[in-house]
Amino acid sequence: MPVALSLESKSNIVAYGTVIHANGDGKLLHGVPLPMNCMRVSIDEVVENSARLPFPIPNECDTIGGAIGTHVAWPARWVVMKNEVNF
């Protein structure tokens, strides 16, 4: 499902992506458990290249621009569903 990804508030959209797992509790991501209350998303389109990932990928990247095309953990409260914003 396509979504907008925001940081700190739902109006601060930094990327667009796709939800891979809506309830990721107990799932692994890059070899570590997906944090509680997070979704596994793929980053498809970047709005803010230098914005920091909420959960950096160890030894790989810590910015949204560096994570395009990969899966990341994103806090569910900052995932903006399509009906909440105009894509």
The beta-strand count equals 9
SSE sequence, one letter per element: EEEEEEEEE
Low-confidence residue ranges: none
The helix count comes to 0
Distance between the termini: 13 Å
Average pLDDT metric = 89
The amount of helix comes to: under 10%
Describe the strand arrangement of the main beta sheet, using strand numbers.
8-5-2-1-9
Rg calculated over all Cα atoms? 12 Å
Strand content: over 45%
Category by helix and strand content: mainly beta
What gross morphology would you assign?
globular
Main β sheet profile: 5 strands, antiparallel
Model description:
It is a single chain. Helix content is 0%, strand content 51%. The protein has strands at 2-6, 13-21, 28-29, 32-33, 38-46, 52-57, 61-63, 71-75, 79-81. The strands form three sheets. It has a five-stranded antiparallel sheet with strand order 8-5-2-1-9, with no helix packed on it. A two-stranded antiparallel sheet has the order 3-4. It has a two-stranded antiparallel ribbon with strand order 6-7. The mean pLDDT is 89.
